[in-house]
TrEMBL record:
The chain crosses the membrane at residues 23-44, 56-81, 93-117, 123-141, 153-175, 181-201, 259-279, 299-321, 333-349, 369-391, 397-418. It is a multi-pass membrane protein. This is Polysaccharide biosynthesis protein. Keywords: Cell membrane, Membrane, Transmembrane, Transmembrane helix. GO terms for cellular component: plasma membrane. Coiled coil: none annotated. InterPro entries: Poly_Biosynth_Transport. It is found in: Cell membrane.
């Protein structure tokens, strides 16, 4: 009897836990987006070719890299700092840095009119068009996370997904091209930006000349670990999105890149659904608990939970990926299912490492995270090239690329758990 009521009490306690509620809210929002995207993707893959998906993947990868560079990773610190004045200065710093980067991109776009070939000139202008809404949205997202506006993030994400999916389908019926896919992605950023701005600032629009005052310069120096360590890591992470697309395009053609883009978008469902939701909630929680409460048990439980949840569906892809992709997305996309089989285990670890990545800054492991990322990308690229020259197939090259990355993921998780254990031990000694 007591055990029965103990189990019921445990469930009630979990349901009242704010951390669990926040994860549930984010999962609900991201789940809605993923269900919508997944439901409409079979229609979209029948409207666009693999080559057009490849062009979209290249655009998105480069844009992600530009967003990382734009504010030197200072937006990440918006959740990290606790003083209200520092938070406001950080927002100002991030927006000013973004304006400077945008101006440089605009200048490069103007120069490209005479210096580059037509196709490259086109993608530069598309990047400039998408840069401002995408980078500002990234900053606004951190503000909403700091203010625990998890429901707002979920609602905006779903609205943006509807706009993007609808535009892709309508454009695909009348003008199926890579341009349609790219402009649809830009529209999604504009929808998110508009909604987030009204939530945070209302109807007011402020413009500041990108000149940093003394207090902002001092704060930038105080938080220099973010541009020194987080920026290179984020840059390396964004670069890791471009490298496989570029390698596949160079050695196997744009169609292979398109297969990869579809595979990555499908396998990112568990990453977005669980990994990102847990990271976005775990980061503020670890920030509040670190130095006051032990965090190792939380890291272990959340990592193992994510590992177990994501393992089953990805094992299904490992054995029946090609058949599933052919059935769901059309016969022309069966090759993408084979890519999914090659990549599935890496995505398991990419999901389960999110709590460890969230704890890196608090444990002083930013340098380790950077080194780990650089070595991972270098070894993965080397593995791709070796597999290409030895076996000469795209599946062998992809398998080698992601197999190398798995070892570095395990290494990172292990080191974070060791460091958190030492931190908890020192905390118990002090208390």
């Amino acid at each position: 009897m007591n055990k029965k009521w103990f189990g019921l009490e445990r469930i009630l306690l979990l349901s009242n836990d704010s951390f669990i509620k926040n994860i549930f809210v984010l999962i609900t929002g991201t789940a809605s987006v993923q269900v919508l995207n997944f439901a409409l993707t079979p229609l979209i893959t029948r409207l666009y070719s693999a080559e057009e998906f490849g062009a979209l993947g290249l655009f998105s990868s480069i844009l992600s890299l530009l967003i990382v560079i734009s504010a030197l990773s200072y937006p990440i610190a918006i959740v990290f700092v606790k003083e209200e004045q520092k938070y406001k200065r950080l927002v100002s710093i991030s927006l000013k840095l973004m304006l400077i980067t945008g101006a440089a991109l605009f200048l490069l776009s103007l120069l490209s009119l005479n210096l580059f070939v037509f196709s490259f000139n086109d993608i530069l202008w598309y990047l400039f068009l998408g840069f401002f809404p995408a980078s500002i949205t990234a900053i606004y997202s951190q503000i909403l996370l700091r203010n625990k506006k998890f429901k707002t993030i979920a609602y905006i994400g779903f609205s943006s997904a509807i706009a993007v999916a609808t535009t892709k389908i309508i454009s695909g019926l009348y003008y199926p091209s890579s341009t349609s896919l790219i402009l649809s992605a830009i529209l999604g950023f504009l929808v998110s930006l508009t909604a987030m701005h009204f939530v945070i600032f209302g109807k007011s629009i402020k413009f500041e000349i990108p000149v940093f005052n003394i207090r902002e310069r001092l704060l930038m120096r105080e938080l220099q670990q973010f541009p020194l360590y987080r920026l290179p890591h984020s840059f390396n992470a964004a670069l890791s999105q471009i490298v496989p697309v570029t390698l596949l395009t160079s050695y196997f053609g744009l169609k292979a890149a398109g297969y990869f883009v579809l595979t990555r978008s499908v396998l990112m469902v568990p990453v977005t659904l669980l990994g990102k939701a847990v990271y976005d909630v775990a980061y503020p929680k670890i920030s509040a608990d670190f130095g006051n409460k032990p965090i190792t048990k939380f890291l272990i439980y959340s990592t193992c939970g994510l590992l177990g949840i994501s393992l089953i569906p990805l094992l299904i892809l490992l054995f029946w990926g090609q058949e599933l992709f052919s059935l769901i997305f059309g016969h022309d996309w069966s090759r993408a299912g084979l890519y999914a089989s090659c990549m599935s285990f890496w995505f398991v670890f990419n999901v389960s490492n999110r709590p460890s990545v969230a704890a890196v800054s608090f444990l002083g492991l930013d340098k380790l995270l950077l080194i780990n990322g650089v070595i991972s990308l270098s070894l993965s690229t080397l593995g791709f090239l070796v597999a290409y020259y030895v076996w000469g197939t795209d599946t062998a090259a992809i398998s080698a690329f992601f197999l190398c990355a798995i070892f570095l993921q395990v290494f990172l998780i292990s080191n974070v758990l060791i460091a958190s254990g030492k931190s908890d031990k020192s905390l118990s000694t002090i208390n």
